[in-house]
DNA sequence: TGCTCCATACTATTAAGTCA
DNA sequence: TGACTTAATAGTATGGAGCA
């Protein structure tokens, strides 16, 4: 069980968030609550947490301030909830290396996806019995700007994301940012975006009963036709066939 | 090394259609 | 009605060349 610290100044919204998810089923345990950053910091000093969940709905500044305080001496995963889609806020959150930024309204599907990503990360960072990673296979850490791009993609997957929008917001040349991304990640920005979208679509097909057009929407496709085409290109089978195969396999 | 410009290749979007 | 295909077009990303 991974221990979670949940920070939210409003008790009713805290309860609502906690009702959204079957935490135990995900392997998470909400160990402590805090209603403001000072209380959260005090708890953080006393106890070790695997994940910090911060609802910044009532004060964006307070939420970001707490991220900064945590980052001074810890790399614990942080998920921010209830922010606005304002790019300046997202950018600041990403600079604090938050693991996810879920803008209002927070849907349970978004939160559970986000939690699954963090759990995957935590599982990977757990000590393994026989570490086999050869030094030549180790990937160097991406530069801050590439990391911002990747985190933005993960956080805003359901939106219409383009490299142009991101590069404009970061005041980088689009061509330069695209090349820098490819140099560091060994895949183009579009390949990365497609990979993230398709993996999420596969998860939703496997784990939910959502209609295909709803899933297409959820992973950022406004046109279902285009989603069909890309999904088949990526997996080799149509979305429907993929779901049927998963049901048979279960 | 970090960045921009520009031509072109590629991708996303849209519309129109078929099939079950 | 939902799932899926195809083709045309507009917009975007990429890569070569070059500048500071």
UniProtKB/TrEMBL annotation:
ATP-binding as UniProt keyword: no
Recorded GO MF terms: DNA-binding transcription factor activity; sequence-specific DNA binding
Domain Response regulatory per the UniProt entry, residue ranges: 3-119
Domain HTH araC/xylS-type: 147-245
Xref: PROSITE patterns: HTH_ARAC_FAMILY_1 (PS00041), HTH_ARAC_FAMILY_2 (PS01124), RESPONSE_REGULATORY (PS50110)
Protein's name according to its UniProt entry: Helix-turn-helix domain-containing protein
Species whose genome carries this gene: Cohnella xylanilytica
Keywords: DNA-binding, Transcription, Transcription regulation
One Pfam family from the record: HTH_18
Superkingdom, natural source: Bacteria
Gene3D superfamilies assigned to the protein according to its UniProt record, in alphabetical order: 3.40.50.2300, Homeodomain-like
One GO BP annotation of this record: phosphorelay signal transduction system
Record keyword Cell cycle present: no
